[in-house]
Amino acid sequence: MSTDLFFAWIGVALCGLGLFGFIVHHHLMRRLLAFNIMGSGSFLLLVGLAQDGRGPDPVPQALVLTGIVIAVASTALALVVLRRWYRVSGESSLPEDV
Amino acid sequence: MSGGEALSWLLVVPLLAAIATLLAPGRWRGWGSLAALPLLWLAFTPVLAAFLHQGTLTTPLGGWSPPLGIALIGDGLALGLVGLTLGVFSLCALFAAADPDPEDHSHLWPLAWFLIAALNGIWLSGDVFNLYVGLELLGLAAVGLVALKGSAEALAAAMRYLLAALLGSLAYLIGVALLYAAAGSLALADLAQLDGGDTTVRVALALMAVGLMLKTALFPLHGWLPAAHGGALPAVSALLSALVVKASFIILLRLWLALDADPLAVVAAQAIGLLGAGAVFWGGWMAWRQARLKYLVAYSTVAQIGYLFLFFPLITGTGTDAARLAWDGTLLMLFAHALAKAGMFLAAGNLVRAVGSAQIADLAGVGRFRPLSLLSFGIAGVSIMGLPPSGGFTAKWLLLQSALASGQWPWLIVLMGGGLLSAVYVFKVLRHAFVEGPTRDTFRSPPTAAELAALTLALSSLVLGVAAHGLLALMRPDALSAVLEGAG
Amino acid sequence: MNTAIDAFGLVLAPALPLIMLLAACVPGFRGRIACWLPYAAVPALLLALGGQTDAVARLDWLLFGTVLALDELNRVFLAFTALLWLGAGWHARGHLAGDARADGFRLLWFATMSGNFGLILAQDVASFYAAFALMTFAVYGLVIHRRSAEAIRAGRVYLVMAILGEGLILSGLLLAAAGSGAPLMALVSDLPGAIAVSPRRDLIIACLFAGFGVKAGLPLLHLWLPLAHPVAPVPASAVLSGAMIKAGLLGWMTTLPLGLVSLPGWSLLVMLTGFVAAFGAALIGVNQRTPKTVLAYSSVSQMGLITVGVGAALQAPEAWPVLSAAIALYALHHGLAKGALFLGVGIAGQAGGRLSGPGARGLWLALALPGVSLAGPMVSGMAAKTSLKAAFEAGMQLPAWWAHLPMLMGLAAIGTTTLIARHLWLLRDMKPGAAASRSEWLGWGFTLAASSLGLILLPWLPVPTPWPEALRALPDLLWPVVAGTLLGVLAHRYLRAWPIPAGDALVPISAALRQLRIAMCLTLRALRRQLRPLGRRLSAWTEGLRADGEQASPLEHTARREAGLIFAVLLALMLLALTMG
Amino acid sequence: MSGWSPVNAWLPLIVVGTSLVAAAGIFLLKEHRHGLRTVFNLSAAVIKLGLVIWMALGVLDEVAFETRYVLVDGVSFILRADPLGIMFTGLSSLLWLFTTIYAIGYLEDAPNRSRFFGFFSLCVASTVGIALAGNLFTFFLFYELLTLSTYPLVVHRGTEKAMRAGKVYLAYTLGGGAVLLLGVAGLHALVGEIEFAAGAGLRDLDTALNPVLTLIFVLLVIGLGVKAALLPLHGWLPTAMVAPAPVSALLHAVAVVKAGAFGIVRVVYDVFGIEFTWQLGLLQPLAWLACATILYGSIRALWQTDLKRRLAYSTISQVSYIVLGTALFGPVGTVGGLVHLLHQGLMKITLFFCAGNYAETLGVHRIDELDGTGRRMPATSVAFTLGAFGMIGVPPLAGFVTKWYLGIGALDTGMAWVIAVLVASSLLNAAYFLPILHRIWFRPQRAPWPDEHFRDCRDTHPWLLLPTLATATFSLAAGLLAGMPFSPLYWAEVVVLREYLP
After folding, report:
1. Which of B237, C63, C575, D487 stands 20 to 30 A from A47 (CA)?
2. Is B127 helix (H, G, I), strand (E, B) or coil?
3. Closest approach of D179 to chain B, Cα-based (Å)
4. Do A19 and C557 touch (CB under 8 A)?
């Protein structure tokens, strides 16, 4: 394993970890966190893959920046929906997932 | 203003409208949006004229050129889809504005405008990362729209939709990262130069495909769709079914055409086709089993999406004729389904409103009081069933021809069987038009504008069947000929 | 000019009854039409008497091109048919007075008449068949006119057999026409030639022989005759027996390849059937209990004799010219005589006291006269029988047993005489009814006169034998009559009629059919019972398929819950596939 | 009149369009606008009939009427007036006029009339489209449209029974449509666009493709056979009898079954070409199938106690005459089949009108209730009698002409056994029609009529009686005046002479 892709592999690992959490958990908050971990993993992957010795590349940085904004936005939305759901139904997980 | 510059207005107008409606007080939002609609058309007209005049348009947004800048590409396919979006959205907006809803759903308007902006962005984007941004924006707006009703059911559906959308986007994003690593570029045009046999590219493509399939709700990843589409407001359901699921499909289609050189693609295409077939049958079957009208229509979307995915086995490694037919057929299917399904959801909304119940069984006798709504539903149903003369039929005909030309006769069974199955569920609703018997005699009438909106959409899906020739010629891209060279 | 009149007459003969039929539908004309009922036959009679032989009328616009023509043969048939319709019409006019269903009767009367004239005159196959069918179907209404249970049964038997006959005739005509020069517009006169050379000759002959045989009362195909004649009103029976039966005969004479080829096998068969009919009908007939039934069997018997003549012609083509004339003559003779006899039944039934009153002897004589004529020794009967015998003898190279033909005919005449004796005997026992009207007397008298004097009045009749010879044959004709009369007189006291029901063989046949139907019903029911469990299982299965109502299925739940899992699995599979490749 | 003019190019489309426009207009009318709707209906019917007569005269003079429009690449929408098409168009527009008049009378005071007449017009538009279709694709287009436009008519009553019948109807016709689509698409994939033209044929194809062509032929015949009610596919027809009488009349005489039979004629003559079909060995099995259907329909009809159901089974039997005529390899048989297309229409529509008259005037539906109707409704009964005798094939009515031509045609082809089938079918026809006639004319009325209307009319309402008598007269005239120019026989001969004989 080359050290160039070290971050990338960490990213892959994070992604896998997140996916695992996403699948096994029913609690919506946990799923949201798992998703965020996956998100971080993929950003790491994006940046890490560019570290292949071709010198600094502005594009992945820009992408990740945008990605983080989007992730924040979606997390915010998810939190809103989650809270509403909790208030309406009193449940912390989706109906058929229990 | 040149056509290329006008291209960016197709994004700017909806975004501005979204912000404006967000700031405006609730009761102004609807009519304000209707007032903004002509602006959007005004932006579209010069683009279309320019395209007809000089072919594919390209605009670097804000003067930045790729790779850092965002380029908008207005090819035939993109402009066709923009036109479709505008058309469907205009009528849905008319429907929603005319809707005398006692509850305040005025948040619909900014969300819808964001949705339109995202859609136009996706149609016009030329690089995979822009597509990602569009996809996310689309997903967020759509989830917001689904959650709009605020009921537990709607919130659960929205939550599930959100999770699926996020998962799909992430998979797509990882794919983008891999592709960028392999190609050093994000533009689709550059990706086409990649060696398809490369493992990185394969993994990237697989990830993106699965993510997009999840967002398109291809069987068996469709679990989130029925509740989301079936439970939303009628105008929202119409937008979601007609346009939103198509966005991720179009991305997959563009990717596939760009990265088609892989010998394994044939196997993958067949696998995707099989999933499409499963969608057709499972969706049709489940639609038939629904007791609630809008859920039936939602499952019908699951089934119809299956047809779209027959595109992949029919275009991959099949030769020029079959590929051309598959391209035409799939796009026509997409258009016809968009129009018909939007019309169907709006008509279903009218019917539900008229009888005050979501159950299909309560529709008995409605035909005598709301014939127009039922007629719209029926006309849209004709296209959904793939019966002539309708866009659905012509599309099915083209797909049949493509399957025959490529010698893949098993897809015939899917096309035929799916058509029959859809007839079963469409007529499950339509038969209530004719039932006479002990029925309620209090019907609330939906506004005429809402009925006309549904009828217009349904009728245009019929007209599409006879007017397809010009449209298809317009949308047949240079990209396709490149693919055909590759395949040929 | 003359030809124009003839052509007009040819068209008018079948058309006038139809015109009167249409007029009778208009309420205002009804009374007048009822009064003019008999005269519908006048144009046909005038045509038969005064028309030129070989007169032709072509109506190209009708059907496939209708051709009506008069020739030597059909002129004879037209003559006696028209006479009979005229006489029976007069009788009917009186007979129908006060009948509640008279209107319907008149309509069907006109229709039958038109069909009868039409089939005699038609020269092309389509019109011939059309007219034949018109007559066949219209007469059903005449048969069941009384609406009694027997009448309905007789009507049903008649209809079933008539339709079978129509079917056979249609097949025969089709098969024959296909071999002719112009199959779509075939002329009847083309058919014999086509049949003679057709590869399906025997089939065609069988179809036509049996098909027309239903009308002509061949054995086993005659079943309807003794049922229908007694129940029909008197004038209807008269035309039924006198004219309609002859339509079958005319069909044979015009379509079968008579005089073209020698068909010994067919000849033997036809002659045998003829004799079976002649003797069998006589035997059964004497055991009947109503005069009209006896007369009906007599008709079968007489037609049997004529059938023998047709059979002879099949053997000896060269004798056909003679034979055809003889058969035509015999048909005329029998038709008028039988018509007079039937009308006589009506007169006898309604003569009130006259059968035993002062003028009774004269009336009895008049009633018996046509019967005697039938048996042989009267003028027309004599001419007919001698010409038939002469025709038998004219043939050359004949089978040896033909020598016995005159003897057999003599025996048949004994039967005829006995039947007539039985008929008169039964007439005596008839209950007297209301007095006959003048119109009925007129009709009967006219037919009686025509029957007795017909030969003399129709100068152009083809009487083949010179008179002296006929006179020389008189003893041959007389002995059977004498023997038959003796037999009748002697036997009537000792003969206890066997209870043979009218319609003889029909009884066992219908019983067998009933049994068959029961057996079939039972079998079917048993089969259905066997199949029922299978059907129940099938429907249970389909119900089960749809039972799970309207909610999402378990599979759907799983898919929804584990969307992520499926996602992962799919991803892994794809990755695996990709990296392996 | 010869030569090409722009009007001629539009005429076929206009003919189809008249009823489409009428349909749209009627749909938009409010339920209570009876007068205006009647005007719409009748003027559209009369205009269409006039245009069709104009076209027919033109076609006799060999004027070309053709509308052509490219739908997608390689597929055109073609409407064209050829003699065969005009024959069927003429029948439908003529009978449409009468059925419209009849339906107006029949549905007086019934609910949902706008819907009914709207779909009614749509149904005729599709029938005319089928008749004038210039290629297989256009044919299919209208063929499916016909299915859709007749469903609302079948379930018009809205009762449980009607809904079930509608379901059965749809299951059969949509299934058939799918099979037909497969066949059409297959053929299209093989040889490209197939315009209807005699002798165009597929003969020039590689003989190795013969099995495929046979398969396609079978698919096409199955698809068309559903509507033509060929033997195993006939199940929908008797159940569809719950529809109102004018609909049954239309289904049976003009539109649906005829569309199927007409399609089979087109496939055999104009797509495959009769000679090529013969070479493929497909005519003989088709004839067997037709004969089996003829006999089966007649036998089943014997056991029906409901008048309309009996007529329905009779239709199953009679329509197969057309198929039989098509399957006879020779001009005479073809004429017989084609002429029956018209004859059966005239006769069967008369019978259904009469059945409707009995039901509407007296409330009589079952055969054993018909006793004595002849006295109460003489004119209707005369019409029924003419129709029934025509069906039996008694000359000089229309049915005889058919039988004669079919018989001679069969013998020309060397299929003498067909004669036996024809005769057997005639006998069976007689066996199930004559008892009805007996009841009508010769039995006294048994009980008060179940549900009597129009007591002050001598027979029945003039709107009902008039079309009945008109069609009865036509079916009499079609046989009686078969030799005249412009008789159905004449047209059939023109078609055969001009198109199928070299």
Report:
1. C575
2. strand
3. 8
4. no
